UniProtKB/TrEMBL annotation, chains A, B:
Protein's recorded name: LacI family transcriptional regulator
Sequence ranges assigned to domain HTH lacI-type in this UniProt record: 20-74
SMART domains, per database record: HTH_LACI
Molecular function, one GO term: transcription cis-regulatory region binding
InterPro entries, sorted: HTH_LacI (IPR000843), LacI/GalR-like_sensor (IPR046335), Lambda_DNA-bd_dom_sf (IPR010982), Peripla_BP_I (IPR028082)
Keyword flag Cell membrane: no
Cited CDD domains: HTH_LacI, PBP1_LacI_sugar_binding-like
Top-rank taxon: Bacteria
Amino acid sequence: MPDTTRRADSLPGNRYGNRPTMKDVAARAGVGLKTVSRVVNGEPGVTPDTERRVQEAIEALGFRRNDSARVLRKGRTASIGLVLEDLADPFYGPLSRAVEEVARAHGALLINGSSAEDPEREQELALALCARRVDGLVVIPAGDDHRYLEPEIRAGVATVFVDRPAGRIDADVVLSDNYGGARDGVAHLIAHGHRRIGFIGDMPRIHTAAERLRGYRAAMEDAGIPVEDAWMSLGATNPERVRRAAEEMLSGPAPVTAIFTGNNRVTVTVIRVLAEQSRHVALVGFDDIELADLLQPGVTVVAQDAAALGRTAAERLFRQLDSGRVAPERIELPTRLITRGSGELPPAD
Amino acid sequence: MPDTTRRADSLPGNRYGNRPTMKDVAARAGVGLKTVSRVVNGEPGVTPDTERRVQEAIEALGFRRNDSARVLRKGRTASIGLVLEDLADPFYGPLSRAVEEVARAHGALLINGSSAEDPEREQELALALCARRVDGLVVIPAGDDHRYLEPEIRAGVATVFVDRPAGRIDADVVLSDNYGGARDGVAHLIAHGHRRIGFIGDMPRIHTAAERLRGYRAAMEDAGIPVEDAWMSLGATNPERVRRAAEEMLSGPAPVTAIFTGNNRVTVTVIRVLAEQSRHVALVGFDDIELADLLQPGVTVVAQDAAALGRTAAERLFRQLDSGRVAPERIELPTRLITRGSGELPPAD
DNA sequence: TAGAGCCTGGACAACGTTGTCAGATGCGCG
DNA sequence: CGCGCATCTGACAACGTTGTCCAGGCTCTA
């Protein structure tokens, strides 16, 4: 059979991207195209002898099924997309990993992309994933208008939002109890005698930031403490601004005696600032941070379970895929106050 | 034109996955199929008026190009794959993000998967990515035999290994100077008067672990210090084993006065153990860790630049794609010793 | 006004796979 | 020995897109 192997033997100058196809395998094995397909997919109705010949041809040619063609034919891609803010952020790593594990359990691959907190980039990414026909989409919103996803959802792309709710559309969302967690954290400080408590957080246009701020206000109000503007810093997006905000709160005639920080990045920066201060200032941070227990004092935090967020969202997504669309739901996961010392410091008035 | 919109208007019961195609758009806009393709791809040769009609139809139907079909036709997917150990590990987050940024700059998406340090899963993942016809592959090896990738590489899949070299095949690799970094770190301890220095690292079958161990031995030998078996713990894969290893080294008649740790996970565990000890033990760790500067004492580390590893690898990959295959290269990035206190403690003999 | 040349638009095949369906082969039984 | 049935195999169309190529209409010039 000199010419059944023609193509493989004469890869023209090893030209780029010339891969064997099922047709080539069929030719080499001396069987029909569909028989190869059957073998590759483990479908019944192939005699052991034929199967062996096909397997040998596959081996010899280094054939690998082209999933693009398969997807085109079958409709499903067995892959889901994840749009998050920044993979380098220690909060999103575990979340992404959890989504991946659930996907894997369902035989799907995860494609993820970082929006860098840019709504435009979020949309661009999400739509690129849809163009690749992911079966589902897990989105950590950067923007606040997700109507651009409506055609996709209508077309059957399962969609779940995590960490922050979708904007202007009705969709599944899984989030932490940001409001309650922040309220508890601030109440904890109040219970330890603080009254002048600072809040440093992200821009309130971000849902989580707004909710945590709301929790702060609620705790203060519950305790009958009027909040002064000078105690609050919103939109602290980079370390320099956080640093300045903290330093301002800690100076002046009536400095704050405790600070509540709105996310892990802010917390880390504030820890640095406090380490430089001679005074002891209490601190409770939203989000747990690694090694928080080894610092002096240990850092008291309101911890959310990033992995649980991811897992819950992914499971919800596959439920959508398995049983068709159901009414959108809002799932809220509890937070946990972990006391380690910094939140139990008394006011240093 | 009642029946040009037939399909869109009568989505049969909104059946799953029924999406408009270019054909539908063409029908609705009253133009030919190829004209729609031209508009979608921004190709020239369409009058403004026609283009407007097509755009309107696209908008109205919520059309989104099916990239699977596009890939099938064009051969390139504009996506690359990344196989790493665990996204939740703070070392890989920034690496992955760096790869993503380079990919984005080249208009490509990143698909990544975690091998969980399991060679079989690594292979499964890498081949799944190849079946999806990624243009290139960045692999952080878990296994030590990558011949399974030979057909893929021959077929034109650009491949770069990171952090550890490929096994049994000749391919591009980007790594840190693990040997030199470890040697420098240990030499640093020796320079501060230590002679009984412990080493706790991963299983030596992992290339980085073996290299760092080699660096440790070299530094000791350079200083004329014979290494005792009791000072070395390999295969410390989980916190319990690390803890036990550290405790053993620190007990007995002639305990080590300093420890060199082989990666960030080990370092963190050892820090915990040392925090419980009354004695002061010097410590230098491989890999930087967050907040290392705020601990008492600050943790001296041999830092590698995860982002630079990822960036370099991805750039190398796209060079392969742009200019065809070139001779495989081995790129080694320097490490940096960051002194913060723990590595400068004198021996507490 | 006719011819040449340009520009726009569309018909058609092909990419590699899978679902459908019908044909071929072999077997057992009457 | 012949028929029916079960089992195995392969031809063909279709998935949605893009590249090729040609047709038709337009403008411009001689």
